[in-house]
Amino acid sequence: MIVLEAAFVKSATEPEQWPPADRPEAAFCGRSNVGKSSCLNALANRRQLARVSRTPGRTRLLNFFDMRVAERTRSGGRGPEHSLRLVDLPGYGFASGPRAEREQWKAMIERYLTRRETLGALAVIVDGDLGAQPSDVEMVRWGQSLGKRIVVVATKLDKIARTRRAAQLQKIATTLGVPPEQVIGFSAKEKFGIDDLWTELVES
């Protein structure tokens, strides 16, 4: 994909603060510090579209980003264009903050996932090095129960030897109970998996 535009729109907590539902949306969720912001920046081909923090649980709002991309033709030219919105959700596991605040975050995410009519795909970001965790399984099941199209992204795969990556992706798929082709191996550092993820997102 060729990224034509990538812009931060706004942060929000309540439905009345959400941007107009005028384009398809894909939400990014994952455990705290799993690499969601790095994944978004790699997709946008920007260094700091989404803020990257070393502090787990730093994202506490719904962050909306508008994107416009074009398919790349075989000759390297520009094909059909797509406009969509990517939404960065707070990490589940919520590593920091008082309990009352964590409950507010949970309610905020639930409102968005259950009420947003333009939300098509749910990208569940999994630590490819660590593997899928019980909270990842729970998130996938919840997304499936809501009728959302699940895209699993195994980040940080550059930390694993190339000869072990296929087996690790298979293990993640088995743990999550999804088809192996539904798991995308991804590395923001080595820049692979980006086009595969874009292809899935524009179908949402």
Average residue-wise pLDDT:
87
Order of secondary-structure elements: EEHEEHEHEHEH
The major beta sheet can be summarized as: 7 strands, mixed
Rg on CA atoms, Å: 16 Å
Structural class: alpha/beta
> What's the tally of helices?
5
Compute the number of strand runs: 7
Q: Hey, roughly how much beta strand do the residues contain? A: 25-35%
Helix coverage percent: 25-40%
- Tell me the span between the first and last alpha carbons: 15 Å
- Overall 3D form: globular
Description:
The protein is α/β, with parallel strands linked by helices. It contains five helices and seven strands; from the N terminus they run ββαββαβαβαβα. It has a seven-stranded mixed beta sheet, sandwiched between helices. It starts with a strand and ends with a helix.
Q: Would you summarize the structure shown here?
A:
The longest helix has 17 residues, at about 100-115.
